Amino acid sequence: MELLQSMMNTVSGFLWTYVLIGLLIVLGVFFTLRTGAVQIRYFVEMFRLLKHGSTRQGKGEEISAFQALCISTASRVGVGNIAGISIAVVLGGPGAIFWMWVIALIGAATGFIESTLAQIYKVPQKDGGYIGGPAYYINNVLKQPVVAAVFAILISITFALTYNSVQSNTIVLSLKDAFDFDNVYGSATLICIFTTFIIFGGGRRIAVVSGYMVPMMAVAYILMAMVISVLNYDKLFDIFALIIHDAFYPQAAVSGGFASVMMVGIKRGLFSNEAGQGSVPNAAAAASTSHPVKQGLTQAFGVFLDTFFICSSTAVVVLLAGVYEVGGEITGIKLAQASMSVHLGSWATIFMSVMITIFAFSSIIGNYYYGEININYLFHRRWVLNIFRCMVVAMVFVGGVSSLSFVWDLADLFMALLALTNLYAITRLGKFAYIALADYTRQKKLGVKEPEFDSDIIPNQDGIYAWNKEQQTRESMVDKQ
Fold it and tell me: Can you tell me the distance from the alpha carbon of 191 to that of 214, in angstroms, rounded to the nearest whole number?
């Protein structure tokens, strides 16, 4: 077992360090240039779409663009936004935060491309609503069913089973630290009960729960960071100056110097916002909207929300507290809790544990949804999906009562393979997202408030199943409500 784990770590480390990170950066820059920096040009439009989408809900089995954003945010906003940022500050110093911001800025363009493609190639379901993602556009457009099946298997195992066991483990430990609740079997059972109730309710219930849970947890956490910032307003300028200075002139305690601080920040950002990794398009495809670009922009905003708002909130709390030590031993959740306690007192430990619990449970919901999408792609059988749901609940329980270093290492390897597969696909199909963006821009310039998508503008009609005239008219009417 130790030999297998060592081999996995070697392969995973090589892929992340020498292949994947460089590829994500290069493609992020390429997509930014090719789209004319869509994530900057349409930043205000993202807020308009967010506000517009939050006022309506999907009908029947449909989910709105806002609900799709909440599902994807539920998955990527987890304990990594708290523990991961604390680790980044300890390993790479304050300067790592700057590079985290940089990779989020360019990664938003990649997120836009993959989510727009997911919308273009979404597939209608018999009971209403839509389904899609990388497995669908790899199979239906690129005509590579084996690659699509491998992707579907990998993402189902990685997110719905492996990552969920880790999230469950985090919740149990958090409850134990905050409330001195040592009954891990009781905690794990409680998590399983809530998980069962939500995931057996299907995608619609997941969307509704995420639509309430994600805004609540994000706003609460960001507001707490804002309160701390206001209380320490006189130190804010120095903190941001420190971040920028250390990004290029890292502290001596940072092992590896400039290259290390940049790598830590970039890797933390990529792990956190998931841009290009092939997970978010599964949620993006489910949205009902009048134009694919709307969901592309909404999910690009999700990258900003994850990094510039939530991750930065943790960074500000930790840096303002001043209890961190570059290269020190106190890191992760413990550092975040200690920092919060400095600002607000001992009760903040309980607040952080509650936040960790909500973040982790929301990730369980979002991660499962990705598995459901891809299990449906592979089998199209309700009984298979129900067996998979039981496996998810079982892994949530196992995760709550076990040590999970092996499955975490396995997930890192699978995630690298997932990302490489998806990046290959969106690089080949990106030209169709550019066409959709040009059409959206043209209509906005003509004064059309809610652009409508005509699939005939796509020269290759392979894989376009949802965008017929009847469906387009219905979604246009929904958008205007």
Answer: 18
Cα–Cα distance for residue pair 206/133, rounded to 1 Å: 17
Specify the amino acid at residue 351.
Answer: F
Q: φ and ψ at 355, to 5 degrees?
A: -60, -45
d(CA 213, CA 358): 8
Neighbours of 57 (CB within 10 A): 15
Both tokens of 78, joined, read 């987890």
Look-up of token digits 């539920």: 74
- Cβ neighbours of 194 (radius 10 Å): 14
- What 3-state DSSP class applies to 272? helix
Per-residue tokens: 476: 């246009």
> Is the separation of the CB atoms in 116 and 358 below 8 Å?
no
Cα R_g (the chain), whole angstroms: 21
What's the pLDDT score for residue 478? 44
Q: Which amino acid is at 15?
A: L
**How large is the angle between the packed helices 257-273 and 83-92, nearest 10 degrees?**
170
AA identity, residue 46? M
Bridge partner residues of 131 (DSSP): 123
219 burial via Cβ count (<10 Å: 0-12, 13-18, 19+):
exposed
d(CA 80, CA 166): 11
Which two structure tokens, joined as six digits, stand for 417? 């393979």
Q: Which residues, other chains included, contact 249 with Cβ-Cβ below 8 Å and sequence gap of 6+?
A: 95, 258
As beta bridge partners, residue 130 has 124
CA atoms of 299 and 138, how far apart (whole Å): 20
The secondary structure of 96-137 as a DSSP string is HHHHHHHHHHHHHHHHHHHHHHHHHT-EE-TTSSEE-SHHHH
Residues 6+ apart with CB under 8 A from 449: none
Dihedral, CA of residue 467, residue 473, residue 475 and residue 476, to nearest 10:
120
On whether the CB atoms of residues 434 and 38 are closer than 8 A, the answer is no
Bridge partners (DSSP) of residue 63 are 287
What is the reported pTM?
0.87
Cα gap 77→193, rounded to integer Å = 22
Q: What is the pLDDT, as a whole number, of residue 33? A: 96
Q: How many CA atoms lie within 13 A of 174 on its CB side?
A: 28
Point out the residues of the chain with pLDDT beneath 50.
470, 472-481
How far apart CA 168 and CA 247 sit, in angstroms, is: 34
Secondary structure of residue 287 in the 3-state scheme: strand
**429 SS3 class:** helix
User: Residue 304 contacts by C-beta under 8 Å, 6 or more apart in sequence?
Assistant: 39, 46, 104, 108
From residue 466, alpha-carbon distances to 124, 149, 286 in Å are 6, 21, 11
